[in-house]
Amino acid sequence: MTPGLLLRGLLSRIPACVLCGSKLIRLSGRPYGALISRLGLEAYRCKRCQRRFPLPRRVALSEVNIQSVIPESNPQKHAIEHAFHRALRGVSGTWTIAILIAPQGNRWLVTLRGPREALHFSFSPEEQNAERVQERVASALRTEGLCD
Q1: Averages of pLDDT over each 10 residues, the chain, 148 residues
Q2: Which residue range forms the structural domain that includes residue 124?
Q3: What's the rounded Cα separation, in Å, for the pair 101 and 118?
Q4: pLDDT value for 31
Q5: End position of a domain, from candidates 37, 56, 75
Q6: Would you say residue 148 lies in a domain?
Q7: Distance between CA 80 and CA 132 in Å, rounded?
Q8: What is the dihedral of CA 7, 9, 13, 16, to 10 degrees?
Q9: Residues 42 and 105 in one domain
Q10: 72, exposed or middle or buried, with CB in 10 Å at 0-12, 13-18, 19+?
């Protein structure tokens, strides 16, 4: 990494590529070393120019808002909601998750709305657990190219 790129990353205040300005960025699968990490920087990759660049952790955080109708009596409610947060870790932007129960049956209808996209899921009763939720959401995010 060049000193100029490092400086641009340190001074960045918006979650966008410091090279081309695109806001279509995702956490890189190849982190920078310990020194860069100590500076509070994370490695990100731009979907437009495909280059890796640093951004401060405080800038590139994702914000997740969950609107859930999962009953409080469900013992996995908090674990499932946390699974959505874990799956979206490293995907920048504001995300709204709406969890509804289908009118007939016990299926969950879930919509993830991000800065530029919306993903839709249907979870059968057998899939209504934290591990399966995180697995399916993370897989969809990878398929959409939003994370590694």
Answers
A1: 84 84 81 84 88 81 85 91 85 87 89 88 94 93 78
A2: 62-143
A3: 18
A4: 81
A5: 56
A6: no
A7: 9
A8: 140
A9: no
A10: exposed
Distance of CA 81 to the CA centre of its chain: 14
**What is the pLDDT at residue 109?**
95
Query: What pLDDT, on a 0 to 100 scale, did the predictor assign at position 81?
Result: 92
Instruction: In whole angstroms, give the CA distance from residue 1 to residue 7.
Output: 10
pLDDT, tens only, 64-77? 899 999 989 989 99
Could you give the angle at which helices 77-88 and 130-143 cross, rounded to 10 degrees?
A: 20
The rounded radius of gyration (Å) of the Cα atoms in the chain is 17
Dist CA 146 CA 99 (whole Å): 21
Q: Are residues 74 and 128 in the same domain?
A: yes
- Alpha-carbon gap, residue 131 to 100, rounded angstroms: 19
Q: Residue 52 domain-assigned? A: yes
DSSP three-state, residue 28: coil
What whole-number distance in Å separates Cα of residue 111 and Cα of residue 121? 6
